[in-house]
Specification:
Elements lengths: L9 E5 L4 H10 L4 E6 L61 E6 L5 H8 L4 E4 L6 H6 L1 H22 L2 E7 L22 H20 L3 E6 L1 E3 L10 H10 L4 E4 L5 E2 L1 E3 H11 L7 E5 L5 E2 H12 L5 E4 L14 H7 L7 H10 L25 E2 L15 E2 L1
Parallel strand pairs: 1-2, 1-4, 2-3, 4-5, 5-6, 6-11, 7-10, 8-13
Antiparallel strand pairs: 9-12, 14-15
Length: 398
């Protein structure tokens, strides 16, 4: 493994106790001074036990480590190479971890908490958000206060600190796509306040770069999945896994022929690390695999991986649901050198077997061009689990 691209930096991860944020912390903390700002309304302190392949254990400023519960997919390919981390899965013995982790328990809408957390940082990964599409429809002002107003506070604070910002956006900005795959230049007609807020944040990020020379990158996550994706707004894969493990019916709304682009959290982390070092700033990038899978096929994959006898059943579709989604990843491949490494089948298998928690992250180097209160930005399909029903049709994230 070559030296991490992000090393000896002071880094803030907003929403760092959530799904994707906690995986970012895991990747960054061994080699950087990392701060987490989270109110833990949906995230968990249990997600913040930082592990490392270099066997340094947890790095905690308050000496109170919690239990680790997941990492990335290191399922091996036929040639023995770890798929989740690529060829860089083995740690470099010349790298001596010397990082730290500090938790600021607070809300990003609180300017004082944000100032404390961001003081002196070099880099901000902004993952915090209210992520439920339904909540954004029921309470658009409240959703806007976190997803947009507070995000502007983050951008303003970054200006004061002269810090780069990598922001979690969403495929929800596109609404119903005109064609597949969906490129970054596709029509943006979001169908919910959540999508509108993410699109506005995309545009603010670009404006802050153009007006104030602030280096920003917006990452439009498609359907994220992986360890630690849980709670009432977790993704369709988490829902199916829970149903299959209990031998309960795996329930799909609609005919199951709707398709999605599922991207593993380890790949999302890699995209974030690349965005943190690229010169191609002031831009938005899709983060997906460029492949699409039907929800019916997904249900069968999950059932087979679990070895469950769950029947697959269907409910009436919801009106207005997105039929198909698939990312055009040519821009992110060309500009950031990003390609997803984890296949859906192996990613699901790792969730079932627990293999995802066995290895730490290897960060991409600058030479490796080929290479969620606020919770954490996770790509999901607004799957409110009361009762558990797969709702893969809307684009949102946690």
């Amino acid at each position: 493994m070559t030296s991490p691209a992000i090393r000896d930096r002071t880094v803030l991860v907003t929403g760092g106790g959530g799904f994707i944020g906690s995986h970012l912390v895991e990747a960054l903390a061994p080699y950087n001074d990392v701060r987490v700002l989270d109110n833990f309304s949906t995230g968990s302190r249990d997600n913040l036990s930082v592990s490392s392949t270099s066997e340094t254990g947890s790095l905690w400023a308050n000496d109170t480590p919690a239990s680790a519960d997941g990492g990335i997919d290191d399922t091996e390919n036929d040639d023995g190479r770890a798929e989740g981390t690529g060829e860089d899965a083995d740690p470099d013995p010349d790298l001596d971890p010397d990082g730290s982790l500090t938790i600021v328990d607070g809300d990003i809408s609180d300017p004082m908490a944000l100032q404390r957390a961001a003081r002196g940082v070099d880099l901000i990964f902004h993952q915090a958000a209210l992520v439920s599409v339904t909540e954004s429809v029921d309470a658009p002002r409240r959703s806007n206060e976190t997803n947009l107003d507070a995000s502007l506070l983050v951008l303003d604070q970054a200006r004061q600190e002269d810090a780069r910002v990598v922001l979690a956006s969403s495929a929800a900005v596109y609404g119903h796509p005109d064609e597949l795959p969906i490129s970054e230049t596709a029509t943006t007609e979001p169908t919910s306040p959540y999508g509108i807020q993410k699109l506005a944040l995309d545009q603010y990020a670009r404006s802050y770069h153009e007006l104030y020379d602030l280096p920003t990158v917006a990452l439009r996550y498609f359907n994220a999945y992986g360890p630690r994706q849980q709670g009432p707004y977790s993704g369709v894969i988490s829902t199916f896994l829970e149903q299959a493990r209990a031998d309960e019916p795996i329930t799909i709304e609609g005919d199951g022929e709707q398709t999605r682009d599922f991207v593993h959290v380890s790949d999302i982390v890699r995209a974030n690390l690349l965005a943190a070092t690229t010169d191609a700033v002031g831009e938005a990038y899709n983060v997906g695999t460029g492949e699409r899978t039907s929800i019916r096929d997904l249900a069968e994959l999950v059932r087979d991986a679990v070895g469950s006898s769950s029947p697959i059943v269907h409910r009436d579709p919801r009106s207005g649901d997105i039929r198909h989604s698939r990312a055009d990843v040519s821009k992110v491949r060309h500009e950031l050198g990003f390609e997803a490494r984890v296949g859906l089948e192996s990613g699901i298998r790792s969730l079932v077997t627990g293999a995802a928690g066995e290895q730490g992250y290897s960060s991409p180097s600058t030479q490796q061009g080929a290479e969620q209160g606020q919770g954490q930005e996770q790509q999901q399909q607004e799957t409110q689990q009361q009762p558990l029903v797969a709702r893969p049709e809307r684009q949102s994230q946690d």
